[in-house]
Design a protein that fits this description.
The chain is of the alpha+beta class. It has 2 domains: 127 residues, Aspartate Aminotransferase, domain 1 (Alpha-Beta Complex); 53 residues, no CATH class. The protein has a 5-stranded antiparallel sheet with strand order 1-2-3-4-5. The protein starts with 7 loop residues before the first helix and ends in a 9-residue tail after the last helix.
Length: 210
Amino acid sequence: MAMNNTSVDSYLSDGCGRCEKFQTPECKVHLWAKPLVALRALLNATELVEEMKWGSPTYSVGGKNVVILVSFKDFCALSFFRGAVMQDDDGLLESPGPNSQRVRFLKFRTLADVKTHRAAAKRFIEQAIEFERAGVKVAPKATKVALPEELVARFARDAALKQAFEALTPGRQRSHVLHISGAKQAETRERRVDACAEAILAGRGFNERH
């Protein structure tokens, strides 16, 4: 199923095109028709440029993405690309998940929600535009990964491998850890440590090619 990137009007009438419910009353976009229309009007009252990307209405300034209208099963939301650095004294913004370092959601379920948080939504939109124009960066958070026992044991026997692993970027370290930890059996994890060793010594992540 191809995503619907034709127009926002088509998005509102037909849906996002992400699943087989496209152009049916069951599409999740139709669950939030009224708040989506109200939020679109709020966004279009600003200098932001409206277009369709990734099957959702996306709003940009100077060619840079600022905020996107998203629809899920349980809510719709303004999704701010730099939401993590925006001032949110009332704690209204929510992270999409524990690993999201940049994006933050301002969630809505009814037209009444839009009316209640209209002033806050406008402030967030204005902040987002200002931050994009100023080139404000979201500093990545350093996250430590729990190493599987088999990898720790290998490091105890192989100092060069341990040093090479510590020199990897956090993302590359994580790719190896996830691959090794994904095995249920200890023997399989040990084999995966062997398989990862060459890439680690070469300074590559698990999924990186030569």
